[in-house]
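Write out this protein's structure.
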Amino acid sequence: MTARATECVCRGFGIVGSGVFLGMTLSVSSVTLPMILRQRTIKPRERVELFKDMYELTVARWLPIGVLASLSYFAAAYFAPAHSGRHAKSVLFAAGAAMISIAPCTLLFVMEHVTKLKGYLKLADSAFPSNEEVLTALRRWGRMHVTRTVCAGAAFALGLYNLMS
C-alpha cells in the first residue's frame, strides 16, 4: 500500500470514527439521559442504576473507537504527502488531538460526577439521596458530558475540512 493510500484509509477511519463517536455523545445527551431523567415511576436507586449501565456500556463500546479514530488521524498526518503542505498535516494532527482530548476532558470534568453517582449505589436505602439530589447529579453529569461532544465534534469537523480542502 502506498503512503497516499495509507493516508486516505487512515483519514477515512478518523472521520468515520469521530463521526460515530460524535453521534453517540449526541445520542446520550439528547435521548438516553433525558429518558433517564423523565421517568416518573422509578426510584432514585433505579435511576442511578440505569445511568451506571448506560455509562459502562458506552465506555466499553466507544473507548476503542475513540482511540482508533485519534490514532488514525495521527497516522494520516504522518503519511500525508509532503506536497499537501503543512496545513493539511496540521489539520489532521489537530483532529487527532481533539479526539484524544476526550480522555483528559473525561478525567478532569466528568469522572467526578460518575464517581459520585456510582458511589450512591453503595449506600443503604435509608441513606440513599432523594430523587431531586439524584436528578441534580445526573444533570451536572450531562453538562460535563458536553465537553466530550465538543471534542468529538471538533475532530469530525477538522477531518471533514481536511477532506474537502
